[in-house]
Amino acid sequence: MTPDNDALPAWHAWLEGGAGDEVTLRDNEAAWQDLRLRPRVLHSLAGSQLRTTLGDRALPHPLFMAPMAHQAALHPQGESASALAAAALGAGYVLSCQASTPLEDIARLVLADSGRGPLWFQLHWLGSRNATLALIQRAAAAGFEAAVLTLDAPVQGFRDRERASGFVLPAGVSSVNLTDRPVPTSLSALLAQAPTWHDLAWLTQHSPLPVWAKGILHPGDAVLAAEHGASGLIVSNHGARQLDTVLATAQALPDIVAANAGRLPLVVDGGVRRGTDVLKALALGADAVMLGRPLARALATDGAQGVARALRQLVDELHIALALCGLTQPGQARSAHLAGDLFAPKSAAAFVNAKNSRLE
Amino acid sequence: MTPDNDALPAWHAWLEGGAGDEVTLRDNEAAWQDLRLRPRVLHSLAGSQLRTTLGDRALPHPLFMAPMAHQAALHPQGESASALAAAALGAGYVLSCQASTPLEDIARLVLADSGRGPLWFQLHWLGSRNATLALIQRAAAAGFEAAVLTLDAPVQGFRDRERASGFVLPAGVSSVNLTDRPVPTSLSALLAQAPTWHDLAWLTQHSPLPVWAKGILHPGDAVLAAEHGASGLIVSNHGARQLDTVLATAQALPDIVAANAGRLPLVVDGGVRRGTDVLKALALGADAVMLGRPLARALATDGAQGVARALRQLVDELHIALALCGLTQPGQARSAHLAGDLFAPKSAAAFVNAKNSRLE
Amino acid sequence: MTPDNDALPAWHAWLEGGAGDEVTLRDNEAAWQDLRLRPRVLHSLAGSQLRTTLGDRALPHPLFMAPMAHQAALHPQGESASALAAAALGAGYVLSCQASTPLEDIARLVLADSGRGPLWFQLHWLGSRNATLALIQRAAAAGFEAAVLTLDAPVQGFRDRERASGFVLPAGVSSVNLTDRPVPTSLSALLAQAPTWHDLAWLTQHSPLPVWAKGILHPGDAVLAAEHGASGLIVSNHGARQLDTVLATAQALPDIVAANAGRLPLVVDGGVRRGTDVLKALALGADAVMLGRPLARALATDGAQGVARALRQLVDELHIALALCGLTQPGQARSAHLAGDLFAPKSAAAFVNAKNSRLE
Amino acid sequence: MTPDNDALPAWHAWLEGGAGDEVTLRDNEAAWQDLRLRPRVLHSLAGSQLRTTLGDRALPHPLFMAPMAHQAALHPQGESASALAAAALGAGYVLSCQASTPLEDIARLVLADSGRGPLWFQLHWLGSRNATLALIQRAAAAGFEAAVLTLDAPVQGFRDRERASGFVLPAGVSSVNLTDRPVPTSLSALLAQAPTWHDLAWLTQHSPLPVWAKGILHPGDAVLAAEHGASGLIVSNHGARQLDTVLATAQALPDIVAANAGRLPLVVDGGVRRGTDVLKALALGADAVMLGRPLARALATDGAQGVARALRQLVDELHIALALCGLTQPGQARSAHLAGDLFAPKSAAAFVNAKNSRLE
Q1: What confidence tens digit (pLDDT) does each residue in C276-299 have?
Q2: Chains D and C touch (3+ CB pairs under 8 A)
Q3: What value of ipTM does the predicted structure carry?
Q4: pTM of this structure
Q5: pLDDT averaged over consecutive 10-residue blocks of chain A (360 residues)?
């Protein structure tokens, strides 16, 4: 069952690999699969459909394509192909700031599709408040609806599989939306430059776009994000590429939902592979989900058509899973549709205190 | 241990495959196996026998052959062979409405055997109340004792293994007891046509046969089935062929037994493979069990003789398992014969409330 | 890791196989291995030794060779070899009534060794009180110290591996200590002949030897055995050869120790493979342990020398395990030397009630 | 995944093997890996560094190389190479009394490095108080900072893999710091000579160096060690080489931390393989960690360079793991950075009583 990694191209290790021994990489998928559904029968299924909302944004269905860097390394059309397919299938699309395509080009492609889902722009902290804000302003000008700030990567984790493969970006693939900037060479200097909650507060006050906080795994940080002006939460562990043995996102979700207490809209990312996984995420309190590797694999295999086919299958699986649980809309999923012991969520009050346990 | 699926005929994937990643397919068997028996010694075994009752029906023993479609795709004699063997061994027999043999022919074969178990007829909702009732009336006229209405398949689940195999029914195999009817082509239209609890109530009021509700996994639905006129419950997840990662039936059983509180007779289906599994089902509160794939495999291999041999082995295993637990009749099995943590059943009251949590 | 069973002789399947799917066969070993020891340091180890007592019998150490039938099928010297080795190493020896050697010959061999452990005689119920008593009287006359009555085999379980192997006893190997008797051919007739608690009471009143009850897995039966005159308990599941998926003996032990409350001496049998397993059995409240297959394998490989070597290794392992836990005698082992969740024993009172739950 | 042991040199079995069936050997690694981290985001990382303290000793970072015998069997430069690398990387170094290099030579090498971590000397009980004290005095004279007394090996455990390999020390490799002394040939005599808590008290009163107690797995022994004068605790199971199925050190740690209640500084050893493991050990209350086999492997492969590279990787992994959990110093790690069920520590009071449960 284990592929012979030596026979695979280096980009395979780059795409599929995770941090360290890849414990969390496996956990991310297993944690969804380990949840058990308890279907209902004979509830009326008239009017069944997948439309839902995320905050005040209506969605054709609750699926997003997660931001992934350098998609031109997977397919010649890169982000153009994936964005086109996502729009055509009504999925939300998050463009990575490390895309190989100008963000304005992607915006033009997507905005032309009236059935599209949300168009968002992901970015890392760019070393200073002004540089970070400037890129958000450019994305806003191009028509993006929200900015997604990745919080869980002040430094890159050890990705053993990728390192062992010797992967380097192919010639001609680069982050065309970013300008070169000096990066500190020592780890301590790099960390000293990492953003703080104060920076997030400043950014959300000045940003022309709502700012989603991506990389939340701790309920205390969910509360802090709301208090510092974030417009939404993305529960994520960076596809298990940053720190091995962190919680799977399905495991982290219930506590965060409890701590958030409905204040911010919430998307979960990591390990979602089937329509039943999506249903479980909704049942645990997420408003929508993001998918990364499955769509990247489809892009590498068959470009826009591959991504569209993969999304189509997921949408159909979700629709059927809802129906077989007696539900006619995504928003009806509840933890009562799950069976067995969940990761018992603590009370929201406990997490409000938790946020003070380690504040700068 | 994994068979080389590519070398197997497509019907193998059709018979053996389940929904999605087949998590529940594996769980169905494992959940019985994971229960532990605690035998008793030196209790008198005089008068030991396997007779039991299901509601007011006396049974030679508590085994049924589950309804399975298109048995002519497995063996030339199809349902004739399996029905004959079941009758000869005293097992209950449930004819699928997708049988390849006229239901009257099967009734004649089975009713001729005085030692036979119950003869039941399974059907899906046929798009309208009258069409569904008409087929039950025909089965009643032929001598069937009960109708089994399958509730867990308003739409068919994704069966990945079967789809990948390219299986199609062999020429000459078709559902001879059903008349063609227009089937909606869109998923939403199909779902809008799905039956509701009101339809079940209507059907049970007009049916000449008692109607068993098949596909119950939620204790709230067990209570609703009783309130809407069902004559019995069949705890089943459709052989794990509908929605992957639903509860194994052995896991669902205790809560349903508690919610049912003895109101309706109860049969459990899914993953039963050994006499010890049957004993465990009885100990958890089922009155009888259904077996599907093990008997279908035996049919494919050796026709009526194969099915008879498989049933003989199961009956003997059950008899010995009872004796080694100090029991002389199936009806004496109690949860006290099981050891370790069960899936703690909640009180019946909790489930009476649960039935209201999502009602049309 | 799985041996190629087809390449192995049929006696291998007979010796190594268990009932059904061999779940309990695996569990028996795993349940000991899964218990965790918590060693102590710097406690004085002066005077360290392995002597202990079983009721009022002093033992050189707490190891017995379990009764196993037809040892001449494993090695030409059969029971003579294993009994000689057990006596030489100070281990208790239980001769099977299905031995291939006259019981008087074994008694002469063993009684000649002054350093020997206990010499016991195992028997099944022989169809009537008088026939059973007569064999015990013969064993008493030969010098055996106790009778072991096997309670868990009123009928033989399904041993799939053995059946598939086609094993038959080699020519010349037979139960020389038993006289032929008519055996019922129907299962019900066989079960009607099975002994009851009343028979045990009669036997213990008339037996010239103390009678140990072998095959106890339920705490209620432990209480009943004491009340019906048994002199000791042997917690056993017949080497997992009778009913698959019964509790492993290590799992059954704590409840039985609690229910027995010190009334009867207690030996545990099943899955013991290492000195640490012996220490765990003592820590959970057993007075001694029996080993079967490991010594039978040693007999098949190298006769008396093989058995002696295997026992020597076990004795040394036990001695070192005790020392590394800070103990100088077997009798000092307590559950405090184990870590983690045990199979929480219920109170003895609960089991006194349990014994009434299913009495003839 | 299993290496072909027959093709490996015997020293591989000696280095990699553990006691018995190697259950604890596997557990030691798995227990760290099974703990889950819960990262924090946007906490200021300015001033991030790895310095910490162990009692009143400042450490460049919390890593030690554990004592391991006969390193000349792994690499021609033996302990000289490993000590040099440890000093260069700021790691603590514990010289085994079974080193192949004179302890004074190692002291000279290490003490010359101003950035080094602590230099300690490990020894076994040498049969008498005076012999043991004399070796500590010699180590003190050479400049070692502490003595580490190994408590968990009054007799060597059964190391099945090593025994099966036929390993013997290569010619020229011997314990040059030890003088020959008569060793008892019987197990009982050997155990009678084992040290006791009284011996530890005497030694700590007379020793010119602080004495650390190595091999603590029981919280009661942690309390006793403090009361008998130990200066620190090393939670260890001897690399799983002494008694199989003892607790993994990660599992033993929380109870010991609770019982110790901050009285003595505490180091944990066993199964630590990644920076995340180090962080988890700190989060559970250890002040520092020791690594054995990973550094021995690096020594065998590439001498001092190999050890230095392995330590560099671990230090970097720890630094990044701290940062991704929002921490700027090792001392900030708390159990709040772990998720899920820990091995629930009991109250310290419970363990003060426990220490009396088996005292000489």
Answers
A1: 999 999 999 999 999 999 999 999
A2: yes
A3: 0.93
A4: 0.94
A5: 64 96 97 96 96 97 98 97 98 97 98 98 97 98 98 96 95 93 87 96 98 97 98 98 97 96 98 98 98 98 98 98 98 89 43 41
Give the largest CA-CA distance in chain B: 63
Catalytic residue flag (residue D206): no
Q: Which CATH number fits domain B5-36+50-168+189-357: 3.30.450.20, 1.10.10.60, 3.20.20.70, 1.10.20.10?
A: 3.20.20.70
**Crossing angle for the helix pair B249-260 and B219-227, nearest 10 degrees?**
50
Among the options D12, D238, D319, D337, which is catalytic? D238
Question: Chain D residues contacting C, CB < 8 Å?
Answer: 20-21, 23, 151-152, 154-155, 157-158, 187-188, 191-192, 194-197, 199-200, 213, 215-218, 220-221, 224, 228, 237, 242-247, 251-252, 343, 354, 357-360
Beta-carbon neighbour count of residue B276 at 10 Å? 30
* Chain-chain contact of C48 with D191 (C-beta, under 8 angstroms): yes
Residue B121 forms beta bridges with which residues?
Answer: B95, B147
Name residue C33's amino acid: Q
Name the neighbours of C, counting chains with at least 3 Cβ pairs within 8 A: B, D
How far separated are the first and last CA of chain A, in Å rounded?
Answer: 46
Residue B54 CA to residue B232 CA, distance in Å, equals 9
Residue of A nearest to B22 (CA): A33
Give dist(CA A85, CA A3) in Å, integer: 29
| Chains C and A touching, counted as 3 or more CB pairs less than 8 Å apart | no
Q: Which amino acid is at D192?
A: A
Partners of D130 in beta bridges: none
Residue of B38, B41, B272, B276 to mutate for C, most C C-beta atoms under 10 A:
B41
**Do residue D221 and residue C42 have CB atoms under 8 angstroms apart?**
yes
Distance CA C112, CA C103 (A): 14
B26-to-B20, B41, B166 alpha-carbon distances in Å: 12, 33, 22
In sequence order, which ranges of C239-324 are alpha helices (DSSP H)?
A: 249-260, 275-283, 293-324
List the domain boundaries for chain D. 5-36+50-168+189-357
Residue from B294, B356, B150 nearest B235 by CA? B150
Query: A245 and D276 in contact by Cβ < 8 A?
Result: yes
pLDDT digits (tens, 9 = 90+) for B268-327: 999 999 999 999 999 999 999 999 999 999 999 999 999 999 999 999 999 999 999 999
In this prediction, residue D233 has a pLDDT band, given cuts at 50, 70 and 90, of very high
CB-CB neighbors (< 8 A) of B316 in chain C: 158, 187
Q: How far is A104 from chain D (nearest CA, A)?
A: 29
Q: What are phi and psi of C49, to 5 degrees?
A: -160, 170
Q: How many Cβ atoms are within 10 Å of A93's Cβ, its own excluded? A: 26
Q: Are C155 and C187 in contact (CB under 8 A)?
A: yes
Contact (CB<8Å) D43/A217: no
Distance from CA of C271 to the nearest CA of D (A): 14
At B333 the three-state DSSP class reads coil
- Distance (Å, whole) CA A46 – CA A42: 11
